[in-house]
Design goal:
- The chain is an alpha/beta fold.
- 43% of the residues lie in helices and 13% in strands.
- The chain has two domains: 239 residues, Periplasmic binding protein-like II (D-Maltodextrin-Binding Protein, domain 2, 3-Layer(aba) Sandwich), CATH 3.40.190; 211 residues, D-Maltodextrin-Binding Protein, domain 2, CATH 3.40.190.
- Strand 1, helix 3 and strand 2 form a beta-alpha-beta unit.
Length: 470
């Protein structure tokens, strides 16, 4: 009902004051060079609405003065807690800036990239988008799909972010997104199941391997200390190889491992199945769940561990049955002589190059990432904030999820290697992609480790370019 009245008000204002949106329908009327934040409304589309016609909240709450009434579209993915927090933040934004209505589209990760890729190709991208880091190089390698956010830095305070993180989201000299947080994968355990098995949660690979046999003997064939999707298997394999060989997976755009080394990594993954540490790919598929956190075997403790991004801890913890204890694990330092694993930009907020409302879109991103009210609502739903203002605000109010803080601290203090953005290319990581083909084939026996290594190496070099061949 609130949005109905907001839309009605916007329609009325169209007739009585001005048309919604910037003249010209795109971001091109924004100045390329960023001026100092002015005390009066900036040029570039605001002149259509006299400052005195705007609510008082607009003048005091916006870094760049007045704004235009319009409807913004906003898309994101995540779990239920992220959805609830984001919608609450949208409500607060709309209350602070009357006349701006946000139309949201959201869902789980499953199938999300396919839907977004179709919109990127068709030019129907929402005004504001939560994006995966790899989408910058996959869908906007020339900086033409997402707007250069330097152009709205008089509204969106980029000084709150360390330059090295902004550089990770810059291509062709254009800032394609603001990074929300840094993330990496770490182990989480359902301690209740380990207690039922009579053992501690594992701190080493040796303890994890032993836990597989203990679970099988003490709890039954349906119980496993760890469950991994095909993509999780790929990341854990790289973690293992980096621990053993001490080098980046990809270096200077080329695969940095030989087929023999990749084969050794795949044999490590296969050894986890053989030791009853993880269920087979077919077993997990037969569970019929859309995702691991929605799998009943996770909820009831039959799958007692995950290898997951720190920013995703909440949805797995929330999915557990009442009374079960969810704890952060340790990095498995006995995999090799080196500290394997990597961190990456967990996600970012990008504005579509074709938006008709660049200023108002930037206001929304500013509210979610930097402003006190918005950041307090969002807290750590997308990981530990990289924005200095957001972190200080949330930390002072005790709003950061303690589990995420613990996991993020352990990851960033341990991991040593860099993730190549193309590691997450859709041709590799999506369902039906190379990673899924290789890990499913290895698990089922359709591929032996030598053949699986060949298929994986060929698939990766196809994405990186044939001159990157191992």
């Amino acid at each position: 009902m609130k949005k109905f009245w907001a839309l009605g008000l916007a329609a009325a204002m169209i007739f009585s004051l001005t048309a919604c949106g910037n003249t010209g329908g795109n971001a091109g009327n924004l100045p390329v060079e960023t001026p100092a934040a002015p005390e009066t409304p900036a040029e570039g589309g605001d002149a259509g609405v006299p400052a005195e016609s705007m609510p008082a909240e607009a003048e005091s709450g916006n870094r760049n003065g007045s704004y235009e009434e319009c409807v913004l579209t906003f898309s994101w993915w995540g779990g239920d807690s992220r959805h609830e927090a984001t919608m609450a933040a949208i409500d607060a934004f709309e209350a602070k800036y009357p006349g701006i209505t946000v139309k949201e589209t959201y869902g789980s990760w499953s199938g999300w990239e396919d839907s977004m890729a179709a919109m990127f190709a068709a030019g129907t991208t929402p005004d504001v988008n939560q994006i995966n880091w790899s989408w910058i190089t996959s869908y906007s390698p020339d900086g033409n799909v997402f707007m250069d956010l330097n152009r709205v830095s008089d509204i969106l305070d980029l000084t709150q972010f360390d330059r090295k993180y902004l550089d990770m989201c810059t291509v062709a000299g254009k800032l394609q997104a603001v990074p929300v947080s840094m993330t990496g994968k770490i182990f989480y355990w359902d301690k209740t199941t380990f207690d039922e098995a009579g053992i501690d949660t594992p701190d080493t690979l040796a303890e994890l391997m032993t836990a597989g046999e203990t679970f099988q003997n003490e709890l039954g064939e349906d119980y496993y200390p760890l469950v991994l999707s095909e993509y999780d298997r790929m990341i854990l394999m790289v973690y293992y190889l980096e621990s053993v060989y001490g080098k980046n997976w990809v270096e200077d755009g080329a695969l940095n491992y030989t087929l023999k080394e990749i084969q050794a990594g795949l044999e490590f993954i296969r050894s986890l199945e053989d030791a009853h540490v993880i269920p087979s790919v077919a077993t997990v598929a037969e569970d019929g769940a859309e995702s691991l956190e929605r799998n009943p075997k996770w909820a009831e403790g039959k799958y007692a561990g995950i290898f997951e991004w720190d920013s995703s801890a909440g949805k797995f913890s929330d999915a557990l049955a009442e009374g079960r204890e969810f704890v952060v694990g340790e990095e498995l330092a006995d995999m090799g002589d080196y500290r394997g694993g990597f961190s990456k930009v967990s996600s970012g907020f990008a504005i579509s190059e074709g938006t008709a409302h660049p200023k108002e879109a930037a206001m929304l991103v500013q509210f979610l990432l930097n402003e006190e009210e918005g950041t307090a609502i969002m807290a750590s739903e997308r990981g530990i904030p990289l924005s200095k203002a957001a972190f200080d605000n949330c930390n002072a109010q005790g709003l950061l999820n303690e589990t995420v803080v613990e996991a993020n601290g352990k990851i960033l203090a341990y991991v040593s290697y860099e993730l190549d953005p193309k590691f997450e290319d859709a041709a590799l990581k999506d369902a039906g992609g190379v990673y899924y083909d290789v890990m499913a084939g290895l698990s089922s026996g359709n591929y032996d480790s030598e053949k699986a290594a060949e298929v994986l190496g060929d698939g990766i070099t196809k994405v990186l370019g044939e001159d990157s061949r191992y």
